[in-house]
Amino acid sequence: MRTAHHGLVDNLFYDPNRDQVYKIGNREAVQDGSWYGGTPLRVQAEKNELPAASFFFIGSEADIQGIRPRYYFDYDGTVSNQERVSQVLQWYELPEKERPKLITLYFSDIDDIGHRYGPNNEEKLQEAIHSLDKELGRLFEGIKETGLPINTILVSDHGMTEIRQDRLINIQEMLEPFDLKYYNNGALAHLYLEDPADRKKVKKGLKGLENIKLVHPTNKKYYGKGPQQFEDRMGDLLVIPEDGYYLVETSGFIKYQNRAAMFKAEAFGEHGFHPDNKDMGAIFYANGPAIREGMEIEPFENIHIFPLICEILGIPIPKEIDGDLSVLAPILKVHQ
To answer: Is the per-residue pLDDT at 178 higher than 80?
Structure first.
């Protein structure tokens, strides 16, 4: 789903109607289902009497529409990949009626390494890939040994772009002259004006600053087409850095200096930029009894994975999603 349907306009944002802040690192907010719009895949599966399990997907701990996955864990980044894979394989050993028919599993390794060393540090990335490949191999071998007709889809939620310290922009200093509150995500900052009538004044004051651009939040490129119920969560103005630049507060400069010293890294990696940025490209692999073999397909928006999984599970595709089954239907054997 796009932002207009799921409601998460960013990892950090303010909702003026609730007078509350959502932050991905705030467990209370993440577990509060009232923040989320639309119908997640796990909820759609449970609605159709298919047990779902989730090992660390955003919002999977939350009660959404009165529904949680049958099996889930509160996020804990210290849980090893080995433990995660072992748990998935244990789920497949459950009796038929109890066995989850949809399992989502998350690994953070590549994201962690990309942030620390940047996406172009081949040595560190290869170390992480080798370690993750070992656990994926154990997962796939374990799936094969079950003898069950299991389809596997491997994706990444985003790409990563390289950021250097000389390309950090101090948004705190930039916004000091104005009467507003802001919430900064690095690749995009939401500006919430005390008086919306000040929009022109703020735009004029920020106009011409190097390496940033202002975008009105109703720009569908960032919010998407669909319901307007979450538009107020977008700032009255958005500050977006040019490609290769990143927004930080004054304390952020110290944070990145310390990170560079700790990891002996000349650059680091960040994401959250618009999908038009080629560095944000992600992966997609699919395998299983429902999937055709040996196909390579053109890049596509990941919103189309939702209806694909519904089709494989044999459950209805919710009307309020943005994905289109026809985009990925050609990879299914039944559509040959």
So the answer is: yes
Residue located via tokens 């005390």: 194
For 18, half-sphere exposure in the C-beta direction (CA atoms, 13 angstrom radius) is 13
DSSP 21-89: EEETT-HHHHT-GGG--S--HHHHHHHTT--EEEES-TTTTS-BTTB--SEE----TTS-HHHHHHHHH
Angle (CA) 164 170 171, round 5°: 125
Res 207: pLDDT: 87
What is the model's pTM? Answer: 0.93
Name the 3-class secondary structure at 156: coil
Tokens of 108: 């953070």
Report CA dihedral (56, 57, 59, 64) to the nearest 10 degrees: -110
CB within 8 A of 206, min separation 6: which ones? Answer: 174, 212, 214, 239
pLDDT band at 222 (very low <50, low <70, confident <90, very high): confident
CB 144 within 8 A of CB 282: no
In the beta sheet, which residues pair with residue 189? 184, 239
Helix, strand, coil shares of the chain as percentages rounded to 5? 40, 20, 45
Range of lowest pLDDT (141-150, 173-182, 227-236): 227-236
- Whose tokens are 């009232």? That residue is 34
d(CA 116, CA 266): 10
246 three-state secondary structure: strand
Q: How far is CA 82 from CA 136, 179, 305, in A?
A: 10, 50, 26
